[in-house]
Amino acid sequence: MKIFSLEQVDSTNTLALELAANGSGHGTVIWAKNQTGGRGQQGRIFASPLGGLYFSLLLQPDLAATELPLVTLAAGVGCCLFIERYCDLEVNLKWPNDLYCRQYKLGGILTETTPVSPNRTVMAVVGVGVNINTSPEDFPGEIRALATSVYAETGKRHSLKNCLSSMVEEIMQQVRVLEQDRDKLLARWNEHDYCKGKTIRWNTGRRCITGIGRGLMDDGRYSLEDQSGKMHAILAGHLQPVP
User: Which residues are within 8 A (CB) of 137 and not within 5 positions of it... i.e. 6 or more apart?
Assistant: First the structure.
């Protein structure tokens, strides 16, 4: 594991993609104490106040290109297992990339891929942001009522450096599980499913469908049963629990 440690960066994912283009390999980590342009899913801004753990991990998993989106699910499982073991805090996953504690967002994952290289290899860049030591008042006003942190939930602060190395190791372990036994990895994800059995809204950008979350499918898509009983296999879009 090679770690690049920075005080501040625009986006750890952006820098990771640049490093990959310049020859950095599997296991490279970019860690920043603060991001000025953190990116979330679908072009959203990912708020990155001080106290959070923000890093990107370069991976070259032994997976077909069509399976690379499952790396996000593996990373989510790795984050959950680390937080539960190290911080003694129960965490759930909202498909495909959000970490939740109770009804509040604890963190997020953004996985991107590098262009295909001349030898036809592709690397995955797994960007992780988890609210570890963040104080509630440090969140931007528009998300303050929606977010939480390990510190806010437990009253305990943790060494971000120690969290980084252990969380990266757990993510890499779960990616190895994915490589060897996809069903086992998906079963672990399902154990942490935040939306299963809840009323949720699926927004595709063109339409909204409300129904009940039914869990992961065998290929990693999420299943939703609408009010007529029709099942939908979700590959993209935004899921949101309905209060």
Answer: 144
Q: Backbone phi, then psi, for 117, in 5-degree steps?
A: -80, 170
Sketch out the chain's domains with CATH numbers: 2-190 (3.30.930.10), 199-241 (2.30.30.100)
- Find out whether 52 and 132 touch, Cβ atoms under 8 Å: yes
Mean pLDDT of successive 10-residue segments in the chain (243 residues)?
88 92 91 76 63 95 90 97 96 96 94 76 92 90 89 96 97 98 96 96 90 94 95 91 85
d(CA 145, CA 19): 36
For residue 65, CA distances in Å to 116, 177, 234 come to 10, 17, 19
CA–CA dist 138, 144 (Å, integer): 8
CA 204, 54, 45: angle at the middle one, nearest 5? Answer: 35
Question: Which residues, at least 6 apart from 215, have a Cβ–Cβ distance to it below 8 Å?
Answer: 190, 193, 196, 222, 223
78's enclosing H/E stretch is: helix 70-86
